């Protein structure tokens, strides 16, 4: 005999899936795996496993004499739109963030989060059209610094940039905060509210939740999970993080 309660639960889950977008963030470590091999095709296979509508990427090689541009390979193998957000841009090396999207990207901005003489940092800030009515979602992909003072300044800059209160905002990336109650995380929780934080680093045996996904309004963030396939555990020193978000309030 079928359980009516179970059937009803399955129907609600199916309805949520129809109304949800899949979102991911992934520090690809320059496409260099834990085996020391640079393999953008392997990275692309992991991204395809995620089956995400929007993917924020960090540590993306974007060309120059130091390393080839990995973004064309990722774009071609996933069939997604691609936007680069270099934080380092010299003839020898272009390097930084990127966003892949199945959905149309209708605006792109770059936020400079560099701090003093430390490594250049930034955020790639895009508007994604989520339906045929022109509904937009703001997606911010970032990779914060290694110093606590640096991260605090960068988060203040990010929060002050969220000047579109009527537009939902996703903040995703490698936050580089090792401590659960670090000041950087407390600042973000104040703005976005708490969100699930599965461990993503190091990929072989994750101990730290360095990679995060937040959304405002927070009630549209349905769930957050780590993607720990065998290929993902080798392709980078970070595991990807995947979330489902509601397309709109219902």
- Residues in helix, %: 25-40%
CATH architecture: 4-Layer Sandwich
Q: Are there runs of 5+ residues with pLDDT below 50, and where?
A: 9-16
Quaternary structure: single chain
Strand/helix succession: HEHEHEEEEEHEHEEHE
Notes on the protein architecture:
With 250 residues, the chain is α+β, with helices and mostly antiparallel strands. It has one domain: 4-Layer Sandwich (Deoxyribonuclease I, Chain A), CATH 3.60.10. It contains six helices and eleven strands. The protein has helices at 4-19, 40-50, 71-78, 148-161, 183-192, 230-235, and strands at residues 20-27, 54-61, 81-89, 94-101, 105-112, 122-129, 136-143, 169-174, 211-216, 221-226, 241-246. The strands form two sheets. It has a six-stranded mixed beta sheet. Strand 1, helix 2 (40-50) and strand 2 form a beta-alpha-beta unit. Helix 2 (40-50) crosses helix 3 (71-78) and helix 4 packs parallel to helix 5 (183-192). It starts with a helix and ends with a strand. The relative contact order is 0.17.
Question: Could you give a quick summary of the protein structure above?
Answer:
It comes from Paraburkholderia azotifigens. 26% of the residues lie in helices and 32% in strands. With 250 residues, the protein is an alpha+beta fold.
SSE layout and pairing:
Elements: H1 4-19, E1 20-27, H2 40-50, E2 54-61, H3 71-78, E3 81-89, E4 94-101, E5 105-112, E6 122-129, E7 136-143, H4 148-161, E8 169-174, H5 183-192, E9 211-216, E10 221-226, H6 230-235, E11 241-246
Parallel strand pairs: 1-2, 7-8
Antiparallel strand pairs: 1-11, 2-4, 3-4, 5-6, 6-7, 8-9, 10-11
């Amino acid at each position: 005999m079928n359980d009516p309660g179970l059937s009803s639960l399955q129907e609600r889950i199916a309805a949520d899936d129809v109304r949800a977008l899949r979102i991911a963030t992934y520090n690809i470590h320059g496409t260099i795996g834990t085996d020391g091999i640079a393999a953008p095709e392997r990275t692309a296979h992991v991204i395809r496993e995620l089956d995400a509508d929007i993917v924020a990427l960090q540590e993306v090689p974007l060309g120059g004499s130091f390393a080839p541009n990995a973004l064309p390979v990722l774009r071609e193998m996933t069939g997604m739109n691609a936007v680069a957000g270099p934080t380092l841009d010299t003839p020898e090396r272009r390097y930084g963030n990127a966003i892949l999207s199945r959905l149309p990207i209708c605006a792109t901005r770059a936020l400079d989060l560099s701090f003093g003489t430390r490594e250049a940092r930034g955020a790639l800030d895009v508007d994604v059209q989520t339906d045929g009515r022109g509904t937009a979602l703001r997606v911010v992909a970032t990779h914060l610094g290694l110093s606590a003072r640096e991260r605090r300044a960068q988060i203040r800059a990010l929060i002050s940039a969220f000047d579109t209160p009527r537009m939902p905002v996703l903040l995703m990336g490698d936050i580089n905060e090792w401590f659960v109650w670090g000041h950087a995380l407390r600042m973000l929780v104040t703005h976005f509210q708490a969100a699930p934080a599965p461990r993503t680093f190091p990929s072989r045996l994750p101990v730290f939740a360095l990679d995060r996904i937040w959304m405002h309004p927070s009630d549209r963030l349905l769930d957050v999970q780590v993607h720990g396939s065998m290929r993902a555990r080798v392709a980078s020193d970070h595991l990807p993080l995947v979330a489902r978000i509601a397309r709109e309030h219902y």
